[in-house]
Amino acid sequence: MLIESESCEQCRFDSTAYTDEDVAGTLRTVGGWWRLATQGIDATTLQSRPTPETWSAVEYAHHTAAVTLLLGAALAVQTGANGIDFGPEPEPEAVAATPLVAEIGPLLDHIEAAADKFVAQLPEAASSPNIAQLGADTYPTSWITRHACHDALHHLQDVGRGLHLLGAGTPSQQALVTQINQGSGGVPKHAVDEARIGYRGIAGDKQRARVHHGRVWQALCLYSSEAINRLRAEGHPIEAGFAGENLTLAGIDWATLRPNTRIAIGNEVMLELTVPALPCKKNAQWFRGGDFMRMHHVEHPGETRWYARVLHDGVVRRGDAAVVEP
Asked: Which CATH number fits the domain 15-165, given the four candidates 3.60.21.10, 3.10.450.60, 3.30.1540.10, 1.20.120.450?
């Protein structure tokens, strides 16, 4: 059977929503995503399974690096008439039996190196007619590239939920939607009273340039009312919506946020944080001296914007309750 696309009900992955550029951008982000998700967490917790049947963060890291390398190697092969033969599928038990490590850093280096090797194959893969053979099924090259994204993103979600169960996630908090922002491209975005949020974000909202924006895991951009107020107190002429966020939230200790934190909005919507939004020079106008790096997550974790993917669709209204880790 020819398998051309892939979807996942659990993590909402849909391979048809990813371009080749999205694949490259996603895999280049995975290593940093892992680093933020595990930053400051002790080695014992990272090696602990949240349940006997669920892998630890370290086990998932081994698996992600191994699968990315395997798929990257497959893309590098110039196929013959019979396509690429992957051989037998890796057994989960073999990955789970990998020796644990005292520090996760080298493992994350391994993930980043594997992602770099994979991305290096994408230009050739985009024009390749190769068909991969795995068991009784065949897969086009485009399926392989998207599957690498699915595997990495799905297991990042698994790691986030596991660490939360182990007590190492973002603490629960009660918050409020103070502003909903929508635009046709560029900044600032303009306030609306309510909006429908779906798989791709706020209905009618657009990004003028999609080189660094607009992927499924960047469906929404969130920002903190308290962070905006602190910036204003420093003399920066910034307001809600100016930095391009879709939802402005009050009541969250922004510095406590981690990737894969879940936020319930109103009665319907469930979001999951992915990675901080890198500062953009288009926001320089909102900062004294053009210092838009004042929003960078490394130097100022409490003043950065966050991207989120949408787990459950629905309507959001100004004044809705927002619950962190409900």
From this structure: 1.20.120.450
- Fold category of 173-324 in CATH: M1 Pyruvate Kinase; Domain 3 (2.40.33)
Q: Please, where in the chain does CATH 1.20.120.450 lie?
A: 15-165
| Cα Rg of the chain (Å, integer) | 20
Q: For residue 284, give both structure tokens.
A: 């320089």
> ∠ CA 130-133-136 to the nearest 5 degrees?
145
In tens, the pLDDT along 50-64 reads 999 999 999 999 999
- Return the number of other C-beta atoms located less than 10 Å from residue 143's C-beta: 21
Residue 144's Cα: distance from chain center in Å?
19
The encoded tokens of residue 238 equal 């910034």
Structure tokens given for 281: 């020079």
State pTM to two decimals.
0.89
Check whether 83 has a pLDDT greater than 80.
no
Instruction: Answer for the pair 246, 190: CB distance below 8 angstroms, yes or no.
Output: no
The SS3 of residue 292 is: helix
CB 37 within 8 A of CB 163: yes
